[in-house]
Design a protein that fits this description.
Blueprint: H1 5-45, H2 56-60, H3 64-85, H4 91-97, H5 104-124, H6 129-175, H7 180-190, H8 195-207, H9 212-222, H10 226-241, H11 245-269, H12 271-294, H13 300-304, H14 306-330
Length: 334
């Protein structure tokens, strides 16, 4: 069954518009949902500014526990504000978080070389011009940053594996009468990378006059994990309000181990959904590969005509939209 040129052009325009709209929706909607949820959490928590009607007498008659809670809340708000300012992560910060020691200039040069190599390989295999452009873009800007993010994630997972044990060493050192600096020095020498070198940075910073709480905050910059942020919160609160540090760190160690168990449980429960998403996402590519291997002439109009290139571009946009939506559905954060 054949259609007229006008109807075919209209259908292509509608398909392209829907594909572009789906990609934009998949990218922008999570941002809008995140901001709305953050504002709702803030409203429920009641962390807004103090009302003007609070008198001096009412503030003087406050319970000391309430004032201490407010002081702790102010410390937590300050830490949250600092974390919000650190959301925009540059390439230099990501390189530092991955535990690498080369400069951003080296990273950009390596990205350019990788993009040129992949582009030349695509041109040698006779790929269409659109595919060559996509390969050049992905090889120069996409693949290097994906590799860098993978290295950062791998280092963070390795850090979480030994972090709770390091907190236990710190607790036992404090209970035995050692100062915090000496206990951290034991961690830096006994624990392997990346936990040991991170605590060594805190110890070395103390020798040049950097307080422990600020040293832990710098550790949060190098290892941006919620667990490390918990340690920074405990150290900040203990510095400003006092208290039993060993007991607070012991509670933190239990929390870290409970979070680790919960993450393992969530990963086990969500594995079925992740497997289904992987199968659904890879099935079109597998079918096209099998069809091209069995009967190359069947897909020749799709690969060697302008109309086929347009259809492939629209299909790629739709596949990207579906993969982003499925990724958002199976991403569970604890």
């Amino acid at each position: 069954m054949f259609f007229g040129d006008d109807l075919t052009s209209t259908a292509l325009m509608v398909m392209v518009a829907l594909a572009v709209g789906g990609v934009i929706f998949a990218i922008i909607y999570p941002m809008l949902a995140g901001s709305a949820s953050a504002s709702r959490i803030k409203a429920v928590a009641g962390t807004g500014p103090r009302r003007e009607g609070s008198s001096l007498r009412s503030r003087m008659m406050e319970d000391p526990k309430d004032s201490r809670r407010k002081q702790i809340q102010e410390s937590l708000n300050q830490i949250n504000e600092k974390e919000k300012k650190k959301k925009n992560k540059s390439v230099r910060v990501r390189i530092q978080q991955a535990g690498l020691d080369f400069t951003t200039r080296t990273f950009y040069l390596a990205s350019l070389v990788l993009g040129v190599v992949l582009t030349a390989a695509a041109m040698m295999f006779g790929a269409p011009l659109i595919v060559v452009g996509l390969v050049a873009f992905a090889g120069t800007l996409g693949l290097p940053r994906w590799i860098l993010n993978y290295l950062v994630k791998r280092r963070q997972n390795k850090f979480l594996t030994d972090f709770a044990d390091a907190i236990d060493v710190l607790v036992r050192g404090l209970k035995s009468g050692l100062p915090v600096t000496e206990a951290m020095k034991i961690i830096s020498t006994e624990q392997g990378p990346p936990v040991g070198p991170e605590f060594l940075e805190v110890v070395e910073g103390q020798r040049v006059g950097i307080p422990i709480d600020q040293g832990i905050e710098r550790m949060v910059e190098r290892v941006p994990l919620a667990e490390v942020n918990f340690l920074a919160i405990v150290m900040t609160i203990q510095t400003k309000t006092g208290g039993n540090l060993s007991e607070a760190l012991g509670n933190l160690s239990r929390v870290l181990r409970d979070r680790k168990k919960m993450k393992a449980k969530v990963q086990a429960v969500s594995q079925e959904a992740k497997s289904s998403a992987a199968i659904i996402g890879s099935l079109p590519f597998c079918i096209v590969g099998i069809m091209y291997f069995l009967n190359p002439d069947y897909l020749s109009p799709l690969l060697h005509t302008n109309m086929g290139h347009i259809l492939l571009t629209c299909s790629g946009a739709w596949m990207t939209t579906g993969i982003l939506v499925m990724r958002k559905m199976i991403a569970f954060e604890i």
